[in-house]
Amino acid sequence: MIGKFVSACVGLAHAAHDNLIGPNWTMFLTKTGALSKTKTGAPRVKETALSADIALEAQALLIKGSQQQRAMASPGFVPSDAISFVQADALMPGKKTTGNSSKRPDLVFMPADPELNLAFAVEAKVLEGHSDCKDLLLGPEGIGCFTRPNDPYETSGVIGLFGYADHASVAQHQAALHSAMTTDTVTGFLSVATAQRSCVWDNVTIARASTLATTKSSGLLCLGVVFGFPSIRQTGATPAKKRATTAKAGTKVPARMTTLTSSATHVGPGTVRPPLAIKRKTP
Fold this sequence. Notes:
This protein is α+β, with helices and mostly antiparallel strands and 283 residues long. It has one domain. 25% of the residues lie in helices and 30% in strands. It contains seven helices and 13 strands. The chain starts with a helix and ends with a strand.
């Protein structure tokens, strides 16, 4: 059951990714929050933005429904292993953390049947340098979120590692991930294998390269996939500005005058003070 569910999740992620980099890529780049400023080099596409819009595209596909669901004779029937929703940067409070300190996987795929207690959680990283797979995906903020001894992310036995890279370097990074898993001594992996694996979404079979391995200590099955994008660095682009919430430096904001009228008040026996118009400055 978990294998079929994860396969559907990865298939949905690929379909959502294909929609994002196709007709919606230009619009995505203009969104506030899509690009980050860097001290050196061109602005870079943010991991959080890519994950958020993959989840957005996935939700649109889920609302549309798969061919299998649309062809069901009984209206409203959903297969038990179907995907209910996809959420990016999901707050997942646990026994030891809550609120802003909660665990926050970059992507979470949830099933239609909550009784199955299935969830496919993913940590994602933007990959540029040759060692990014080792340092980021296999680092403490990558797979370490699932394998750390203190309050690790909950899993159903399978975890996802998604890399976001330029189209031209996808194969290079997928090979680097395989090599890093093979030689890793921190987590330790068994049976590392990279191959073209088929996943199905909406009756369309997608064959993409992925790296599959099992962690030595916890026995978690780890699925690593590198997704390609037109360009991680946007030469000549500038990040969209956030909406201003304060006045620019050196600009004096004129105070508004608010008039409050008091009711008539008695000052002494037989004396009545007329209503007062009180002017106050409102910042």
